[in-house]
Design a protein that fits this description.
single chain, 736 residues, alpha/beta, 9-stranded mixed β-sheet, 6-stranded parallel β-sheet, 27 helices, globular, binds adenosine-5'-diphosphate, binds magnesium ion
């Protein structure tokens, strides 16, 4: 048996099973080995669901299924219902008067439920139980002796996990796998048993160097595979998961580290503008730079004068003034002549995620460059512009796309602003020396080179983001970039007032909003995020809730104001039009999904009301709130959860206290349970990997091991297995 053997060669499968496995991404033997359980069930431990009788007070562990909310038509109160399932059976759960419960949890969530069994024989149900989310290895942790072992060390698998095997229960643990219609955990367990019995583990070679495993007491790949699928005890399962978590971070770090090393070997444009000239530029700002902006500018200019390509990420809350920093880097670039020439200038490409943002950057750049006139081009799907106009010097003018592209190609227009897609697709530069990117999480060397086309030198890269992410995540996914934080807001900005609005008590908030609307301000109303595995369905549900909320506000609350809507099902053109109307104040209140997250600047919008606030992460709420901190008027953020639970309120309270987005991002990561971190879609990291990010020591260990290895063996010639594993990884994951 080979790891690359198709599953269909080994097992006799029905068409339905084949389809299910392919949906799960399981095609060859190796895939099945790396199809990890997302939790474990303890055989015969604790109370099992089978055999419960009414009147019992119980603590049960199981997964939720079939959640829904109904109106009980006898008593006219909402009832949330669902099933709790464990290895032995199912029991119905009912929550009276808590309609949000069914919405707060998703089917398949593993929970601990504490409550009383009600009903009659054969119709037992659990009434109003308290729920607590559990993680994959939580089962059985209620036993105090295991809990204390669990916390022994922060490092992955420290202490030989094997010494804890005395904890193993005779029954062992059952692995529970992500299922798809047509497969069951039982099938996967049997299939793996057969693979193990067939000697598949003899085929497995560990890509991680032994000395690294030893240093952190991590199990070998063979051991870890056995432990992750068929653990005798939770200690083993945990050790195995830590190994895979380490492995994932280690691999990402190796990729980034190699990319980094390759970049450092490249040459780039030497951008040297005398300090005095730079000072002239920054002194012309209508404000004084913050200390953080000064530090950032210095870091960028140092990088760009070194002759090596800059790769720097500028991370700062919305409103921290990233554009001024970017403009200064652009200024230094266009002030530099191409090597060996005494005419012309180096060029800058500034890429934004949306057209509206591209236009806004264009306008900002025009202002920043007011006293230092240069040609600036804007390329959008609906037309192209150039500043200044030949006829009216202080204004921009439309020009044809062909003309714009020609002037960029011959170097007459040194700064071009547009969306990622447009610039990457169509623009040829003469001497592209600096690429500025807004809110795109990764931009690889290949993309950089492609953009510069025939240039032998790699352009400098300045990537900017307002997405606050925890340090461990930044260290991991941006391992190839230098990080600069703008952790200071411009002075004099009024602190945003954030209010926690209890559900059903919106009155005061609306009164305040009306007062501000009367004074000529505008507001965003954000509808709850809806978690749905199928994005099409999620979009449809969101659209529905946005429409309904807009209708309600118009009818019951703000009939005298113009209300607009914005959601993901709208076409790009329609979205742009609505945003434009909002920007022109033809709309007073914009009811939207979180799509408005992307940094659109409407300074007159000073209020944001966030419904269903507990469904957003703290960092995301913070980012949403950032929409309204752009003017000198007092800004307000109303955070309204659907539930009144103490935990929810306490969590949201952090928003009124945290100093900045970074702090909130850390809190967010720690508070969220596994499976709630959503790494796959956003960052290309698995659930196991995301869990690892809660552990700074693990991330730092993986990072330093990876960097040391890259330093000693940058093309991994001495580590062929590692090289192979990395290649396989890059082929299956797409970061961009
Ligand atoms: P970001 O892109 O980081 O969200 P911007 O660059 O758009 O922030 O800046 C937000 C606003 O703050 C702009 O109107 C800008 O002119 C202003 N601004 C930037 N830096 C400062 C500063 N040091 N002092 C005062 N205002 C500033
Ligand atoms: Mg910005």
């Amino acid at each position: 048996m080979r790891l690359s053997d198709p599953i269909t060669d080994i097992f006799r499968l029905t068409d339905q099973q084949k389809a299910a496995l392919s949906r799960l991404g399981v095609r060859v033997v190796r895939d099945l080995l790396f199809h990890f359980p997302f939790r474990y069930e303890a055989g015969g431990e604790g109370t099992s669901i089978a055999g419960l009788v009414a009147g019992q007070e119980v603590t049960l562990v199981g997964t939720l299924e079939k959640l829904e909310t109904k109106k009980s038509w006898k008593r006219k109160i909402p009832v949330s219902e669902g099933l709790l399932k464990d290895a032995t059976g199912k029991i119905k759960i009912r929550w009276f008067n808590q309609p949000y419960i069914a919405k707060m949890y998703t089917n398949g969530t593993l929970v601990k439920a504490v409550g009383k069994v009600s009903g009659s024989a054969g119709k037992e149900y659990l009434a109003n139980p308290e729920l607590e989310r559990l993680s994959a290895t939580d089962v059985g942790l209620f036993k105090p002796e295991q809990k204390s072992l669990e916390k022994k060390s922060g490092l992955p698998g420290a202490g030989d996990p094997r010494t804890f095997s005395e904890n193993s229960s005779a029954e062992g643990l059952f692995a529970v796998y992500p299922e798809s219609r047509g497969t069951t955990s039982l099938w996967v367990r049997h299939a793996l048993e057969r693979l193990f019995a067939g000697g598949v583990l003899n085929e497995v070679e560990d890509p991680i160097p032994t000395e690294v495993l030893k240093r952190y007491n991590l199990p070998t790949l063979k051991t870890a595979l056995v432990w992750v699928h068929t653990p005798q005890n939770l200690r083993d399962a945990e050790a195995a998961r830590k190994r895979f978590a380490f492995e994932e971070v280690f691999f990402i770090q190796l990729e980034r580290g190699r990319e980094r090393a390759a970049q450092l070997k490249e040459k780039s444009f030497v951008v040297k503008t005398p300090d005095a000239q730079v000072a002239e530029f920054t002194n012309a700002f209508p404000f004084k730079e913050t200390a953080a902006q000064k530090r950032a500018i210095k870091a960028l200019l140092d990088d760009m004068s070194s002759g090596r390509p800059m790769s720097r990420l500028l991370e700062g809350d919305v409103g921290s003034g990233k554009t001024a920093v970017a403009a200064t880097a652009a200024y230094a670039t266009v002030n530099t002549r191409p090597e060996g020439q005494n005419f012309g200038t180096l060029q800058v490409a500034y890429m934004a995620p949306t057209e509206i943002l591209a236009k806004q950057h264009f306008e900002s750049f025009i202002k920043y460059f007011e006293k230092f006139p240069i040609n600036i081009g804007l390329i959008t799907g609906s037309g192209c512009f150039k500043f200044p106009s030949k006829v009216r010097r202080g204004e921009a003018t439309t020009i044809s796309r062909t003309q714009l592209l020609k002037w960029v190609a011959n170097g007459e227009i040194p700064v071009v602003i547009g969306t990622h897609a447009l610039i990457q697709k169509s623009v040829q530069f003469k001497h592209l020396a600096l690429v500025i990117i807004d809110e795109q999480h990764r931009f690889g060397t290949g993309q950089r080179r492609a953009l510069a086309k025939k240039e032998v030198q790699l352009p400098h890269l300045l990537s900017m983001t307002a997405t606050p992410i925890p340090r461990t995540l930044a260290l991991t996914i941006y391992g190839d970039l230098d990080l600069t934080l703008l952790d200071e807001m411009p002075p004099g900005r009024k602190q945003i007032i954030t209010e926690l609005v209890k559900p059903g008590e919106r009155g005061d908030a609306y009164t305040l909003m009306r007062r501000e609307l009367k004074a000529g301000r505008q507001a965003y109303v954000i509808c709850p995020r809806i978690d749905e595995p199928d994005p099409a369905k999620a979009f449809a549900l969101q659209a529905k809730s946005v429409k309904a909320e807009a209708k309600r506000l118009k009818k019951d609350i703000f009939p005298e104001y113009e209300i607009g809507i914005l959601h993901s099902k709208m076409k790009a053109g329609e979205k742009d039009k609505t945003m434009q109307k909002f920007a022109n104040h033809e709309i007073d209140i914009l009811v939207a999904t979180s799509v408005v997250e992307v940094g659109v600047n409407v300074p007159n919008a000073t209020m944001i009301f966030i419904e269903g606030a507990e469904r957003f992460g703290l960092a995301q709420l913070h980012q949403l709130r950032g929409r309204v901190v752009r003017s000198n008027h007092q800004a307000y953020c109303f955070v309204c959860p659907e539930t009144r639970g103490e935990k929810t309120l306490a969590r949201l309270k952090a928003l009124t206290q945290a100093k900045n987005g970074f702090e909130l991002a850390e809190m967010d990561l720690m508070q969220r349970g596994p499976g709630e971190l959503g790494g796959r879609a956003q960052w290309g990291i698995s659930d196991i990997g995301m869990e690892a990010l809660k552990n700074l020591k693990l991330v730092e260990a993986a990072r330093s091991e990876a960097l040391t290895l890259v330093q000693k063996d940058s093309d991994l010639a001495k580590h062929p297995l590692l090289k192979e594993a990395l290649t396989a990884r890059t082929q299956t994951t797409h970061y961009e």
